[in-house]
């Protein structure tokens, strides 16, 4: 386990803002309703005087939470027109509103005690959530090394397929390949329940990934028992945060900027000691 307090980092993301308190509240309420989970805490109550583009943002948020691959070009165009230069920051906070309730639900289901979802919130209007997420939280998660590289990659590829991230699906992590990963093995992910090549631990992890993505309010005791059977508490904590880290591809997919960097075959990459993604030659 890294000595970085990742639960506190999650709390820090929750305290940040898109710059529009009403939109933050609407996005959090929309995600909570879409996921059948308690929404994140909200600083601003909704009162009369909403902006004309708020229904558009709510519709975009709901699609982001339920199935990001269903967002169309017209939705992207309208969102960009409505929000202008603040569109990316808003989608980052949309991601926080969507993913943090899932993480807390996963922690609860697995009996972990690192929720980070209690107590008063010191609202942060000064920090940049884009920097905090992309340059702070996500690399910190990537620096965790409790899971073996193949499990980490199998989990990543399942999330890539479920969110239909073209870039993520086109990439292969070299440490996982060196540890025994292969296209034959990865080809089994789509039908992992009946696979004879994936281990029982892989299958338990993939069941958890699917639940976190599609039914986070319904993580069954049986599923949680399977995860705890194959993974230590620290590994289960890392697995949960890996699902969130991988799901950052939803930001790219929602904005239509997830095109692969290769036109044929796969792009090789590695995650360095700093948690940064480093491209490698094919």
Automatic annotation (TrEMBL):
InterPro entries: AhpD-like. It comes from the Bacteria. This is Carboxymuconolactone decarboxylase family protein. It comes from Mycolicibacterium rhodesiae (strain NBB3) (Mycobacterium rhodesiae).
């Amino acid at each position: 386990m890294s000595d970085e307090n990742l639960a506190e980092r999650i709390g820090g993301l929750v305290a940040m803002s898109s710059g529009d308190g009403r939109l933050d509240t609407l996005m959090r309420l929309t995600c909570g309703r879409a996921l059948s989970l308690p929404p994140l805490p909200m600083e601003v109550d909704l009162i009369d005087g909403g902006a004309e583009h708020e229904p558009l943002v709510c519709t975009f948020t709901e699609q982001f939470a339920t199935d990001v691959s269903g967002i169309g070009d017209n939705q992207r165009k309208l969102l960009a027109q409505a929000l202008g230069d603040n569109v990316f920051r808003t989608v980052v906070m949309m991601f926080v509103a969507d993913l943090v309730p899932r993480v807390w639900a996963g922690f609860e289901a697995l009996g972990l005690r690192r929720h980070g979802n209690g107590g008063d919130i010191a609202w942060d209007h000064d920090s940049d959530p884009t920097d905090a997420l992309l340059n702070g939280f996500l690399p910190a998660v990537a620096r965790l090394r409790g899971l073996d590289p193949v499990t980490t990659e199998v989990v990543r590829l399942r999330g890539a397929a479920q969110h239909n991230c073209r870039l993520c699906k086109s990439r292969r992590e070299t440490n996982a390949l060196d540890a025994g990963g292969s296209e034959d093995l990865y080809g089994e992910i789509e039908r992992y329940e009946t696979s004879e090549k994936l281990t029982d631990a892989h299958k338990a992890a993939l069941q958890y990934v699917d639940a976190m993505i599609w039914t986070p309010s319904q993580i069954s005791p049986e599923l949680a028992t399977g995860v705890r059977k194959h993974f230590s508490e620290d590994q289960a904590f890392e697995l949960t945060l890996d699902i969130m880290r991988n799901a950052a591809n939803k930001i790219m997919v929602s904005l239509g900027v997830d095109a692969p960097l290769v036109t044929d075959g796969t792009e090789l990459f590695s995650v360095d000691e700093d948690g940064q993604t480093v491209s490698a030659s094919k």
